[in-house]
Amino acid sequence: MNKLILIAAAMVSITLNSYGQDNNVTDFRNKVTFGLKAGLNYSNVYDSQGEEFQADSKFGLAAGVALAIPIGKYLGIQPEVLLSQKGFKGKGKILGSNYKFTRTTDYLDVPVLFLFKPSEFISIVAGPQYSFLVRQTDVFANATTSIEQEKEFENDNIRKNTFCFTGGIDINLKHIVLGVRAGWDIQNNNGDGTSSTPRYKNVWYQGTIGYRFYSK
C-alpha cells in the first residue's frame, strides 16, 4: 500500500505541474469518454487462512479499454475490459537442489468502477471486478532442467470466474489518463451456482497510462 501511495503522489505532482503550465485544460467531468490504456501489474498471492505463505511478486502486462459515463459533475460509472497478467514467483530446495517456480495467469478483467470526481484532473475509482482465467503458465526450473506447463480455459468453463474488488486514482490531463490501482480476489464461482473463498488469492498493484476520446 505504501508503494501505491508513493506512485499516486508522484503522479499528482507531475499532473499539478503540467496543469499549472497549461491554461487550456478542459473540464471533462460532464462528458462521456472512451479510452485505451496499457501498463503493468505488480502481483502476488496470499493465504486467506492466515498461515505463513512465502512468495515473491512478479510483473505482468495489462491493457484494455475504458468507458466513463457521468452521473452529474462529481459522480460517474466507468466499466472497463482488460487483459491482465498476474501470478507470483517462488524458490526453494528439493533434495539439496535449488529450484525456481513462476506462475503467470492471464485474466480477462471486467471492473465496474464508481467514480468520484472532486476536481477536473483527479478521479477516485472503486468497485467490483469480474475476472475470467484465460490461461495459466507454470515454469519450474533447477540447475539441470526447465519444465513449462500451460493450460488454456474455455469460455464456457465458469469454474475459473473470480469476483474481485479494485480501487485507486485516475489523474486526468487533457487526453492523457494516468491510473494507479490496487486489487484483490474475494470469491470464485464453483460452476454450480455456489461460491467459495479461494485459499490463495491474487493481490496486485496496477499502473497504467491511457489516451481518451470524449464526446462533444
Layout of SSEs?
Elements: H1 2-21, E1 33-47, E2 58-70, E3 75-94, E4 97-119, E5 122-142, E6 146-152, E7 161-173, E8 176-189, E9 195-196, E10 200-214
Antiparallel strand pairs: 1-2, 1-10, 2-3, 3-4, 4-5, 5-6, 5-7, 7-8, 8-9, 8-10
Short structural description:
With 216 residues, this protein is mainly beta. The chain is 9% helix and 66% strand.
Please describe the structure with a list of short key phrases separated by commas or semicolons.
single chain; elongated; 66% strand; eight-stranded antiparallel β-barrel; 9% helix; Porin; 216 residues; mainly beta
Structure overview:
- This protein is mainly β and 216 residues long.
- It has one domain (2-22, 31-214): Beta Barrel (Porin).
- It has 1 helix and 10 strands; from the N terminus they run H-E-E-E-E-E-E-E-E-E-E.
- Strands 1-2-3-4-5-7-8-10 form an 8-stranded antiparallel β-barrel.
- A hairpin with a 2-residue loop joins strand 7 (161-173) and strand 8 (176-189).
- The longest helix has 20 residues, at 2-21.
- The relative contact order is 0.22.
- The model is unreliable at 18-23 (pLDDT under 50).
